[in-house]
Design goal:
alpha+beta; 5-stranded antiparallel beta sheet; 5 strands; single chain; 27% strand; Aspartate Aminotransferase, domain 1; 139 residues
Length: 139
């Protein structure tokens, strides 16, 4: 995205215009998800972080843990969550898509939980990301 660099050698954080260009129509889902986060969990901090292997992404966190990762890319947002076993069981009870649950169950169990990823490109996938966020906060 951005070509300027920071004093740490990382490229400068994407501007709103650059973000809108990359996301295209998915920008509305990006904005809606961040608005949802601020309403659903007012104590959450939203910050840009640069990773050498993944580039820029947004990390949503509270005082104790990371709640979500948002990775902008061409025409979509990838929302990632590390779900505890309790959150995974709740996701199964809530009737989240079977394919998503299979991917979560198949992912390696890390100390933070199992990874759930949603490619947000539509209103329905944006709704799934919001439901996963609520589960993450609740468990």
């Amino acid at each position: 995205m951005a070509k300027k660099t920071t004093n740490k050698g990382a490229p400068a954080r994407p501007s709103e215009d650059e973000l809108a260009t990359v996301l295209g129509r998915a920008k509305r889902h990006w904005d809606a998800f961040l608005s949802f986060v601020s309403e659903a969990h007012p104590g959450a901090a939203v910050e840009w972080k640069f990773y050498k292997t993944a580039g820029w992404r947004v990390v949503v966190r509270d005082s104790r843990r990371n709640l979500a990762y948002l990775n902008p890319s061409e025409g979509k947002v990838t929302a990632s969550f590390a779900l505890s076993e309790g959150a995974v069981k709740a996701a199964e009870r809530e009737g989240l898509p079977k394919e998503l649950l299979e991917e979560v169950r198949a992912s390696p169990k890390a100390p933070e939980g199992r990874v759930a990823r949603v490619e947000v490109v539509s209103a329905s996938s944006a709704e799934i990301a919001k439901r996963l966020f609520v589960l993450k906060v609740s468990y």
